[in-house]
Amino acid sequence: MIEIKDLSVVYQSSQETYTALKDIHLSMPMGGTCALIGPSGSGKSTLLKVMAGIITNFTGTVEIDGQAVSPTRQKIGFIPQNYGLLPWKNVYENICLGLKIKNKQAKIDKNSVDFIMKQLGIDGLGQRYPGELSGGQQQRVSLARAFLLKPDLLLMDEPFSALDAITREEIQDLFLEVWKKHAVSTVLVTHYVEEAVYLGQKIVILSTEPGRISKIIDNPLFGEIDIRNKREFFELSLQLRNFIKEDWSNC
Amino acid sequence: MLEKRTFLWYVLGLCIFLAGWYVMARIIHLPIVPSPFLVLENLVDIFMKYIAIHGFYSLGRMVAGLTFAIIVGVPIGMCMGYFPKCDRILAPLVYLTYPIPKIALLPILMLLCGLGELAKVLMIFLIIVFQVIVSVRDGVKSIPKETYYPLYSLGASFWDVFCEILLAASMPKFLSSIRVAMATSISVLFFTETFGTQYGMGYFIMDAWLRVNYLEMYSGIVVLSMIGMILFGIIDILEKKICHWQYK
Predict the structure, then answer these.
(1) What is the model's pLDDT at position B135?
(2) What CATH number does domain A1-74+152-225 carry, 3.90.110.10, 3.40.50.300, 3.30.300.20, 3.30.430.20?
(3) Residues of B with CB below 8 A from A86's CB?
């Protein structure tokens, strides 16, 4: 269980204090997915960074399986918006980086790297550098790195937003397919309602000033086959969109 | 293939340079600008006999100063780039001392360190180290914050961040700072070698000049520029090897 209780984050600069997140309560089961959707300034990325242990200056509790979140104790995979690949490492080295940092001396099993690369359709690209890859391929590499790590929690900050529409759908499908095999608890931030409905078992709508949760939806459509072409999908998306429009215009 | 083509470009550059020199020599037609072919002939004659030892001395001083500057400058630059507090404390100090013309310090260095090698190496060190500090710092500062997040979320130590990110990310700027500093330091090396030594290209060239032996003087200048070219070439090769990812 991943549990967030009474979480508030306040940024303090010399001139002013700014409340980025206020009284966040959220829980999700291990092995589930949760999509955060919210306008700019609603603290989505801040929430993600708190869960990643990057921001430590907060009040309230964030726990994974009853233990306070800590990058050294738990395995937390983080995929930033720009995929976080290091341009000076080739694809293979980039994929292994997570394990290398986490396991120190432990040798990395080449077969499992090859396996995950195959699963994500990037086999044969091992010697290439990120600069030589398309956006979609880079995203696959960053997913491979995350899944190879078998993290306790995978965090993704607008992971598919820089991709064109067709590639985005492809990678979303691929993500779900690989995710089902590994069942990694995942929290992702998104701008797109459809993406939230497609990928989020739980959909959390945030609103701004200060960032707080205005609605949590248990998505009944999650995991259904070929859901994107069904009427329910459009209906739920539309419903959410209308709610969001109203909610965000009140801010 | 690529190396061969680069080599051909170097040869072409050399030919253009020699042609320009030759034309100048013909126009001016005085012993003070001898024909390049006479100089090269002289160079072949005396290189092993007289010049090589001076060349090695100069090269040795350059390499020593450079190594020293890298050992000191890279860690300071990294810390300044990575830790804002460190930058806040050290930046004014660096900015205050960076613009001081280092050559003006030569008499003081000579008084403090004697006329020997140390003063000369320190001089080169002082010229290069500031460029290294500032460019490594800027290199580290220009790394997007997001690059660190995947490592932070895995509990990476500073050492991990240093090995995986800082070193590689600051390398291109570091190498170009060395390139910029190198030209200045060769000129200054020449100057320092005119005092308190009987070895080094600076000494050789000034000595030939005082003996009004223009052929030898020009031979010395050619060797000095060759030393520069070799060092620049090495940096280029290093950059291609280490920073090839930049061009992908």
Answers:
(1) 92
(2) 3.40.50.300
(3) 147, 164-165, 168
